[in-house]
Design a protein that fits this description.
Layout: H1 4-17, H2 33-55, H3 57-63, H4 65-78, H5 93-99, H6 109-124, H7 133-142, E1 148-150, E2 155-161, H8 163-169, E3 182-191, E4 197-202, H9 204-214, H10 219-227, H11 233-245, E5 249-251
Antiparallel strand pairs: 1-5, 2-3, 3-4
Length: about 260
């Protein structure tokens, strides 16, 4: 008698791969074992493909529904849904596309996927009270070693191409011709206090600050990292002030 976990593992493998390795555990008196397994496989495939399409609408718009289904099917074979939370499924699609040979003629697709996943996660992130300049000033004077945290809706993605321009172009009803070119950049994605998800290119200096904050370093230490080799202090100060006003940061106490 096989162990229960062996039967479950075989079944889950078949659900995501379409194979029939678990058929040996089914009732031998019934001849439609494979057909019954196919029902589970097809339902899983359709359901998870719909989840991916919901998280990556612009990507699907660019490649077309047919090729998007092909991408989704191959992705699902490798990346099963690990939790019951559907909002966590699909986060590895950008990395997957960078290695997916049929997508090789469109190397910017992994960038597009990274933008869309950040956008999706920003849209569903928990709410939090943002810090303002008055609160920030008080923290600097009263608690020199405080940690300035990023809002849960904040994400930043590193791009190889002008994918942000392409993504923005596909928001329009009439899509204009856009020339693809390499353009390394970091894009900040966040949800503002009006629950609108916004995207903005940021400097290397602000990215350095965001990374330090994300890693839990004190604000003072994070600023020291930024100050190292900073060439345009005024430009950074303006960019940081804008980030604060946009609701990018919360303080450790959440108020």
């Amino acid at each position: 008698m096989p162990a229960l976990h062996s039967i479950q593992a075989a079944f889950m493998h078949d659900v995501y791969s379409g194979e029939h390795t678990s058929a040996v555990y089914l009732d031998k008196s019934k001849s439609n074992s494979s057909e019954r397994l196919n029902i589970y496989y097809n339902n899983t495939l359709l359901g998870l493909t719909d989840i991916l399409a919901g998280a990556y609408p612009i990507l699907q718009k660019i490649v077309g529904k047919g090729f998007f289904r092909t991408i989704a099917h191959h992705y699902i074979e490798i990346h099963s849904q690990s939790t019951g939370n559907r909002h966590t499924f699909g986060g590895e699609l950008g990395a997957f596309l960078s290695l997916f040979q049929p997508a090789a003629p469109w190397p910017y697709l992994s960038d597009m996927a990274a933008i869309e996943w950040a956008y999706f996660q920003a849209a569903i992130a928990a709410d939090a009270l943002v810090t303002d300049f008055n609160s920030l000033t008080n923290l600097i004077s009263e608690r020199p070693n405080f940690v300035l945290l990023l809002h849960p809706g904040v994400h930043f993605v590193d791009l190889r191409f002008n994918a942000l321009e392409i993504w923005q172009g596909h928001q329009k009803k009439e899509i204009e011709s856009i020339t693809l070119f390499e353009n390394p950049q970091t894009v900040l994605v966040w949800r503002d206090q009006e629950d609108v998800v916004l995207l903005k290119k940021v400097s290397t200096s602000l990215k350095k600050l965001l990374v330090s904050c994300q890693e839990g370093e004190s604000f003072a230490k994070a600023m020291l990292h930024v100050g190292d080799r900073l060439q345009d202090v005024q430009a950074f100060q303006q960019e940081f002030a804008q980030a604060v006003s946009m609701g990018v940061f919360i303080n450790k106490d959440g108020n």
